Amino acid sequence: MNRNAVLRGALGVAGFLLVMEVLGRTGVVDPYTLPLVSSILAGAFGLLSDEEFLTGVGITLSSSAAGLLIAVAVAVPSGVVLGTMPAVERAVRPLVEFLRPIPSVALLPLALFLFTVGEQGKIALIVYTSFWAVLINTLYGMRDVDPLAKETLRSFGFGSYDVVRRVSLPSAAPFITTGVRISASVALIVAVSVELMAGGDGIGTFVSDAAAGNRRDLMIAATAWTGLIGLLINSFLAGVERRVFRWHHVQAGEDVT
Amino acid sequence: MSRVITRIARLWIIPVALVTWEVITRIAEAVYFPPPSTILVRLHELWFSGPFTRAFLTQESIDHLLPSLGRLVLGWGAACAVAVAVGVALGRSAVMYDCVSPLIHFFRSVPPPMMIPIFMTMTGVGTPLQLAAIVFGVVWPVLINSLDGARYVDRKYLETCEAFGVSRVQRVTRVILPAAAPKIFAGLRLSVALALIMMIISEYVGSTEGVGYHMLVAQSQVDIPSMWTAIVILGALGLVLNAAFLRVERRLLTWHRAARTNG
Questions:
Q1: Any domain includes B35
Q2: % of chain A residues with pLDDT over 90
Q3: Angle made by CA atoms B240, A136, A160, in degrees to the nearest 5
Q4: CATH topology of domain A38-244
Q5: Which residues form the ABC transmembrane type-1 domain (chain A) (predicted)?
Q6: Cβ-contact A202, A25 below 8 angstroms
Q7: Do B96 and B175 belong together in one domain?
Q8: Do A8 and B196 touch (CB under 8 A)?
Q9: Nearest CA-CA distance, residue A72 and chain B, Å
Q10: Which chain A residues contact residue B122 at CB under 8 A?
């Protein structure tokens, strides 16, 4: 990104905020329905020292991270095993294709019946959703491994464990990272959805409470913070992908649910 | 014919999984996991046992399934049309792209369900809420992909247009849109899943009808088989939309893949 682009981007953001403020002040947009930008910004600033909000953010982020970690811990080994056994992969494939498009939130009532303690239901749904993106991307990666490299190691007498560790996993790593990045934003979406639909602690609950108390400024401010957090997480993971795997240009699609 | 048979034969694991599920749930008598046969019977009587003249739809389907589908199609279609048009227009101007890019990426990063309470204070409960929710979920990924697609059109194509005096309209419909199509389709496919999620949540928290609302009622009455019928319907919807989309995409983008493999 060059300096001009940054400058224009800043101008765009400032212009947008200014227009919204003017629309509110002149009464074109009713400031009751959509609070003024200035009061939203003030609210956003105030949230930084709001105990309840910060705890909510912490709970939402930690349950997303927990769910994502469990999903990676299950999906990557499954992907590697399936990737080394093409016959099994072919057999299981239709099952994956059937289960993957099921919208995770449709399973929420079931998850609530099964997991009644704390954030377990939320984490279970996050695991279910994140699992597919990581699994599919691991499979892509395993398919992309250079067969020549595998054969070379084999002919030097390396066992299949070493082939996986020295060739398959490193060469599938960029794909897996893409899967994790996609899953990270999906995990946040699912976490918030569960909080909105089922209550419990978290940023989603904070917003529905603010709605119940008719604090529209806080509602929008909290949502804006969540957007920024999501943006930061995504840019961070995309940066890792670019920097660590510079030697590799992943062409994996952003195909997720 | 034989190709169809091999294709179906590849799916052998699905009936095997269903039978296994049936046997296990019958033996375990798990409360929250009714056997698939029970779910199917319930699915039939609750949703699809209506008269022939109404295409076998029951009153339940007409009251809950059709409104859901209607809003899904309307919200998704409208959002996509606007997002593709705006995205292609903005993507052709480098200055405009730089100006709006941070804003669009910010809105894209807001988990869409977060917007539902905000919309609810503006629209109240009902169809406008569902439409607003679906549109917000769909618009950003489609917009970003259309922007990117329109941005990186091969210079040579555009210079050729210039040299041959191709009109503006034709340049958009014949060159820019096709060149951006693969990216646009990636965004559209992604947005189908988001539209479905937004439909379910907005019906669950702010509606008096729809499959999501039906799910809520079944859950509160602890009517597990009825709840499972909603899960099956929503799952099938996700599966069918996804498959249909891949089909359309494959047909429309054959030229793209052909060009890639030859080049």
A1: no
A2: 42
A3: 145
A4: MetI-like fold (1.10.3720)
A5: 57-237
A6: no
A7: yes
A8: no
A9: 21
A10: 33-34
